[in-house]
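Q: What structure does this chain adopt?
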Amino acid sequence: MKMLTETFYVTGGFDDAHQAADGYFESHPGFVRVRSNPVGESRYSGGFRFPNITIPRGAVVQSAKLRLHVTYMDDVNCEMYGNNVDNAEDFSVDPQIISRPVTMAHAPFVKDDLGAMAWVEVSGLEAIIQEIVNRTGWTSGNAIVLLLMANSDVDRFCQFWSYENSPTDAAQLEITYITGVMYNLSIQVNDVLGGYTSPEVG
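A:
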């Protein structure tokens, strides 16, 4: 049994993007917009892709943290999911955020005043990552996409620097996991139930 901590990175311009609830999509603006709003055309969800996740199938995920660099807009109100596929495509091959299949596991990311021009860390994403690496088609080296699906209750506006602004400002994903143990098959719900598609379709 061995515990490892690894950090994975957005590595290209098509590895981060945002999309409005009415379908408008962008992947090269220099930032990723996440805006909650009751009006669909004003509501934006974001996505970040991390290639070459070198975690074996069935590893036990102990912690998972997303690090993001905030711009000047720092009020966030969204729910975080994983793209529930074996090997997530980048946003040039699949230019969608709101219609990608998502994990059953999710985590809230709701906070005003994150801190303009500051790095923030979103923890508590273990169940999302666990669900993906438990998939029957998961293989070490595959890619994971995390989706920040904007809520529709109130108007809150946040932006994070993207790879295009500077590779050093791009999102990071830190995962701590254990290998070499027999994993409890009873919680591999994704193998039985599969994912579902986000209700954020318009």
